[in-house]
Specification:
alpha+beta, three-stranded antiparallel beta sheet, binds zinc ion, 82 residues
Length: 82
């Protein structure tokens, strides 16, 4: 599951998702150094897991399920006539 760094006071987040937590923590350290003088931002920042529903990956399974139901209906309709 990928990770992403977010800084709440800046409304900023990693440009890319990282496959490991280490990558997002690297973004966190870089952002803190560049924007907050190496300190933790007062409003909080975090390294979060990016869930599949937040990325919009849910579209594929939804369409796959619909396609599967249509295929099942076609097979059943074809078998019913025999
Ligand atoms: Zn920030």
């Amino acid at each position: 599951m990928p990770y992403r760094y977010r800084c709440r006071p800046c409304h900023a987040e990693s440009a890319a998702e990282h496959p490991t937590r280490d990558g997002a923590e690297y973004d966190q350290a870089a952002h803190r150094d560049q924007v907050h003088g190496g300190l933790a931002p007062a409003g909080g920042d975090s390294v979060d897991r990016v869930h599949s529903h937040a990325r919009g990956d849910r579209l594929l399974p939804r369409y796959s399920l619909a396609a599967g139901l249509v295929l099942l209906a076609l097979v059943l309709a074809n078998c019913w006539g025999r």
